[in-house]
Amino acid sequence: MGAGEIVVNSIDTDGVKKGFDLEMLEAVCDFVSVPVIASGGAGCIQDFVDLFHALPKVDAGLAASIFHFGEVTIPNLKKTLAENNIIVRR
Q: What Pfam families does the record point to (predicted)?
């Protein structure tokens, strides 16, 4: 039995709100054949846009505090991603 997907959290960027660890995520994406979920570092909507443009192999981006503290809303995130030609669930 193997993993169906992998959540990759960079403790170096977790909670810092300065963007995802793109270098580490790229290395993981190049090594595994299952979906990768990026976690740790999201501070604004642009961080998600940068993630998906830089690493189209990443299947999802995970965040918490930016939503809990109202810094970003999910509808605004989805709208911006769609406007940037990034596929989102509706």
A: His_biosynth
Q: Can you give the pTM of this predicted structure?
A: 0.92
Comparing C-alpha atoms, which of 30, 35, 32, 67 is closest to residue 48?
Answer: 67
Neighbours of 14 (CB within 10 A): 15
Q: Looking up tokens 């979920």, which residue turns up?
A: 37
Q: How many CB atoms lie within 10 A of CB 73?
A: 12
pLDDT of residue 36 exceeding 70, the answer is: yes
Q: pLDDT for 76-90, tens place per residue?
A: 999 999 999 999 987
* Domain residue ranges in the chain: 6-83
What dotted CATH number matches 6-83? 3.40.50.12600
Q: Please give the Cα distance from 64 to 28 (Å, whole number).
A: 22
